[in-house]
Amino acid sequence: MDTQERKKQESLTRRETMRVELESYSHNEQLARVVVAAYMTRLNPTVEETEDVKTAVSEAVTNAIIHGYGESGETLILRVSSFQDELQVEVEDHGVGIPDVEQARQPLYTTSTEGERSGMGFIFMETFMDQVEVRSAPGSGTLVIMKKRIGA
Length: 152
Hints:
This protein has 152 residues and is of the alpha+beta class. Helices cover 38% and strands 27% of the residues.
């Protein structure tokens, strides 16, 4: 086994994590998408897998910015990790939190009073990822953990 193949095999047997802190402004949603897409290239994803993950990341980050902080510029944490063929993306805010997570996960539910939100963020996350977990409490912020097997 040559050196490059050995390094590839070693990377498949350990969890590698990247952490990025972003200010909660809408323009940083695109940055989050690009950062996650760049990170996941190590898993050799298909174009469709990459687009699925980017869509889910957009929804999670947008929810944190709009609903968690209200675009106040507070810190949003993006963690991306991989282990073997699984990609895990975490989006965490320390904003207002979600009073009823199950209700928030229902199609068309939104707390936005502006009428510009469709209430489909969690549905999109669940559609494009294999697993979505939401941990939240009022006043304590929200953690969204999304997982997707790449190449499965």
